Amino acid sequence: MTELATRAQAFGLIAEGVAAGLSAPWRLYLARGCRYLSLSVGDRTEWNAWRTHLGCPELSVRVYDAGGEIRRSSVAEVVLDGCRVSVELVEEVSTGDLDQLLVADPASVDPEER
After folding, report:
1. Which of 12, 25, 68, 92 is the most buried (most CB within 10 A)?
2. Is 0.90 surpassed by the pTM of this model?
3. Which of 57, 67, 68 is nearest to 95 (CA)?
């Protein structure tokens, strides 16, 4: 992969992904000093594509109440040259989908099992 010692290199990492055919993240946060880069994507397909492209081995899922709405935050992370890079997807989850909250990849569940 690339070194992320400068802002230009961090943004270059994103440009490489977009040039490879990935959708551009809808939000990008780069911490001062280039030690943390966060990408927010719009759907699970984009999330899977970015985490595969970056080789993110660390995955976490958090479910929380946001003012009466249940949300699921899926985060994939990797450390590249001392910079923590995360790809985040936030989805609203209906109460009918609560059984899927424990599944790491809801798309992999057979529709008849839902």
Report:
1. 25
2. no
3. 68
